Amino acid sequence: MTPITVRVDGATYADDVEPRTLLVHYLREQLGKVGTVVGCDTSNCGACTVHLDGEAVKSCTVLAVQADGCEVTTIEGVASGGDLHPVQKAFNEMHGLQCGYCTPGMIMASIDLLEDNPDPSDDEVREGIEGNLCRCTGYQNIVRAVRHAAAEMRGGADGHVVPAQVDTAAAPHVVGQA
Amino acid sequence: MIPAPFAYARPTTVDEALQAIADGGEDVKVLAGGQSLIPVMRLRLAAPETVVDLGKVEGLRGVRDDGDAIVIGAMTTHSDVLADPLIAEHAPLIAEATGTVADRQVRHRGTFGGALVHADPAGDLPAVALALDAEFVIVGPGGRRTVPASEFFLDYLTTAVGEGELLVEVRVPKLAGSWGMHYEKFNRVAQAWSIVAVAAVVRRENGRITEARVGLTNMGPTPLRARQVEEALAGAEATAEAVAAASERAADGTEPSSDLNAQADYRQHLARVLTRRAVSTAAGL
Does residue B109 sit at the A interface (CB-CB below 8 Å)? Predict the structure, then answer.
């Protein structure tokens, strides 16, 4: 066992961990921070994204011992009091999720992107969150959510973005079969 | 999946790291950013007896000016490389290729030196180091030695860094005169490895290409220099026709692998097309 001291979402923890413990498992199983999820288990999907000393990382590909002496922020630590973070709020308002599994990672990656680029284009958002996979939404409203949040965080003046029109009527060929 | 158990060493100096490697037993792995090593350990493709973590070792991170070269510390992260003014000024090719590596999260953790020592044939930085004639500074129990890029990549996932040794920094010579550089990468989906990529470094004077260096990614078990292209370009007129003719030789003598992404003959086709694009852009055509 190796001793580590980590600050997570504003609280300091001192623990002994097995060196092979992954940061995501330490957060979920030892600290109960289950807001951070494990998606693919192979460093592809980004669902487990957290901030390590202010930078987005995939916590399934970091050992807990590597976080010794560091500051970790999870999705559970981005709201202030009862107020959601602007990116959380934007994902809600713009329907940037469907099943919601990728959402914690999407939000953590998006916050990281907006720190570097406060006014990204659609393409820059897509590039910026390329490390995060969503299997439900097709990304359209995720991109809108990130740009909406960006506008809010810049001051809200040009934050007028509307979610995609969703046509719930059956497509013609389906209607024909009915 | 979690890694198999291992002993863990967390040195704070290069000397301590070398000692930890020496004391680590038969199978020691050095952990830099861990973005290749940890997945490989999770899949149990590697189950080292000891992991030596360089994360707290002083002095391995950052870029400095050393007169005729810039020196990149092995533990400099990809994100640090992307933001570094010396790299932007003297070796923008490195930043361009680094920007195509994986995704933001991986680039925050992954390191310049780690990617080079891992030496994945589909990795982007080895061909770039080769095209820039970089030099690798390796320390070990026997002292310090410098290995040119042309002698660093020995085989699939194998470099000149021997047992008990560490890569500590990479020297990238500054180029005098009028040089252009470009990295042209072909892959299919977000955050994917290169199917083939080409690094081109071209010196152009008075309408002619006076020198060209072309590095190929994923055209064999190690990165390669396209020497026939370089010879054909030396002294050639800087025209689209001349570059296209020279680029036809990009795959000469190569034996790329066939896998789910591409058959060998398709990779050879890509090498020719991407060389033409990379050299053209580097030459300002």
Answer: yes
Assign B245 to helix, strand or coil. Answer: helix
pLDDT at A13 over 90: yes
Kindly determine whether residue B34 and residue A2, on different chains, have CB atoms separated by under 8 Å. Answer: no
The ipTM assigned to this model is: 0.94
Q: Are residues A35 and A97 in the same domain?
A: no
Q: Which residues of A touch B5 (CB under 8 A)?
A: 18-20
Domain boundaries, position A41: 2-77
Give the confidence band of A175 by pLDDT, cuts at 50, 70, 90.
very low
CB contact under 8 A, B2 and A109: no
Task: Give B82 or A166, the one with higher predicted confidence.
Answer: B82
CB pairs under 8 A between A and B: 86
Tell me the per-residue pLDDT of B12-39, one tens digit each, with 9 for 90 and over: 999 999 999 999 999 999 999 999 999 9
CA atoms of A119 and A126, how far apart (whole Å): 13
Say if residue A164's pLDDT is above 80: no
Q: Which CATH architecture has domain B65-173?
A: 2-Layer Sandwich (3.30)
Co-location of A98 and A66 in the same domain: no
My answer on whether A139 and A91 are in the same domain is yes
Please give, rounded to a whole number of angstroms, the shortest distance from the CA of B91 to a CA of chain A.
22
- The total of structural domains in chain A comes to 2
Q: Identify the residue among A61, A132, A133, A135 best suited for mutation to test binding to B, counting B beta carbons within 10 A and taking the highest.
A: A61
Cβ–Cβ contact A56 with B under 8 A: yes
Give per-residue burial for A50-65: e unless 16+ CB within 10 Å, then b. bbbeebbbbbbbbbbb
CA-to-CA separations, A21 to A94, B3, B235, in angstroms, rounded: 36, 8, 57
* Dist. CA B68–CA B172, nearest whole Å: 9
User: Of the CATH numbers 3.30.390.50, 3.40.50.720, 1.10.1200.10, 3.40.50.2300, which one belongs to the domain with range B179-282?
Assistant: 3.30.390.50
Mean pLDDT of chain B: 97
pLDDT at A42: 87
Can you tell me which residue has the tokens 């490390």?
A131
Last residue of a domain, one of A14, A42, A77: A77
Cβ-Cβ contacts under 8 Å for A36 (sequence gap 6 or more): A24, A27, A28, A48, A49, A50, A59, A74, A75, A76, A104, A105
Q: Which of B28, B56, B104 should be substituted to probe chain A, the one whose Cβ sees the most A Cβ atoms within 10 Å? A: B104
pLDDT of residue A178: 44
Q: What is the mean pLDDT of residues B176-197?
A: 94
Architecture, CATH, for domain B7-53: 2-Layer Sandwich (3.30)
Q: Is residue A18 part of a domain?
A: yes
